[in-house]
Automatic annotation (TrEMBL):
It is found in: Cell membrane. This is Uncharacterized protein. The keyword Endoplasmic reticulum does not apply. GO terms for biological process: monoatomic ion transmembrane transport. Residues 1-16 form the signal peptide. The keyword tRNA-binding does not apply. Its main location: membrane. GO terms for cellular component: plasma membrane. Keywords: Cell membrane, Disulfide bond, Ion channel, Ion transport, Membrane, Signal, Transmembrane, Transmembrane helix, Transport.
Amino acid sequence: MKNLRFLLLFIPFASGVIINCEFKTYTYSDIGSGYECKLNKDPSIISPNIVISSAKGTHQASMSHEKVTSFYSWSKAIHYIPYGLNKIFPNLFSLFIANGRIKEIHQKDLEQYPRLVYLTLYDNDITYLEKDLFKFNTELKFISFNTNKINQIYPTIFDHLKKLEHLHLDVNQCVDKREDDRSGVLELIKKLKIYAGSLLFLIFK
């Protein structure tokens, strides 16, 4: 029995989820053009540490998994950030996971995407943003936590993101602000520090 407990301790990830993609080209005003895996069937990501093992779908002519730069999901069946997308799509730099049920996000969830430029977690249930969440994501230019339930933000979380030009924190419990240029982002970060740890932060709208 002791050996069994030892083995279970070192199996942190569950694998085997296959996703179905609609592969398409895209043009977004904030990140330009690219090639996208748009999730067209809902996988079941309702427990943590789920690993995506493969992706199915018909590629456009001359395209492949290696050409995919963006992952797009609009699914209530996603409760956690999945793992493995970076292995399937090695050139991924955009994550759009919206209308889900994600309640928490951790540094380890994003560490697998060191080249991440665009992150949207619009319309989820996230309640807080932890210290060093973006430690390994220094290329980020666009971050959106619009329409979540955030009531706590670590005040220095964005300090090292020198390329950040878009920061959307609107429609949350402790903050309702968005900025779409570098100077505005810096001002918003400054205000977050002023109000953090204060009762005033609860009404920072």
